[in-house]
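[Q] Does anyone have a clean structure-token version of this?
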Amino acid sequence: MRSLPLPLALTARLTPVVVLACAGWAMSSSPADDAKDTAAKENQTTQSGTASTSGPSAAAVTRTYSAAPAPCTSVTTKTVTSLVPGAKTAGKEIPSTDTKLRRTCSWNALKGYDYRWLDISFEITESDAEATSTYKDRLKEKSGGGAVPGLGDEGYSLVNLTTEDKQQTREGTVIARVSNALVVITYNGSDFESKKAPSTDVINTGAIKAAKEAVAALQKTAG
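[A] Here you go.
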């Protein structure tokens, strides 16, 4: 008998091996095992999905303050009378495009020759981080002031003197950050008889007093 060509001979020898190997694989991999493998893969996928949705990136941002409080009742009538003599204690709220996020109340009056103006504003941001960033930006714009210890999480005050047509006006600004909210106080004054302005201490002390009351009013709305 003539021998088969080498390739065919190899094929003939290997065929039983392949058949046996396939048979062995079929015996070792039963339908039950396939089902177990499928279930294990599905379980791993589920666990992976759960881990990705429950991680830090999915955590909701907590906001201490979701709305600005009423600014015209954030300071006592006694304080208004003291800082702005002759003004209507009810104040006047300034129109806002979104009263939930920003509200401002203003008082101003001329008593004799003394003029005073007080503004109190509340600004609500999305997070503490955003409020902190905004607070730092405001300080860059109004450099030259100093920290106010114990006023919210961060407090800052600045007093400036301006002169126009020989009339002096001294203005104080106090900015406080309380969690995700900002409280901004503007207080200024002029004497139209002497052309002078109130002292730095008078303006600064008055602005900080109003700021402390406004911060306290805001904190009552937390939660």
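[Q] Thanks! Anything notable?
[A] The first strand starts at residue 92 and ends at 94.
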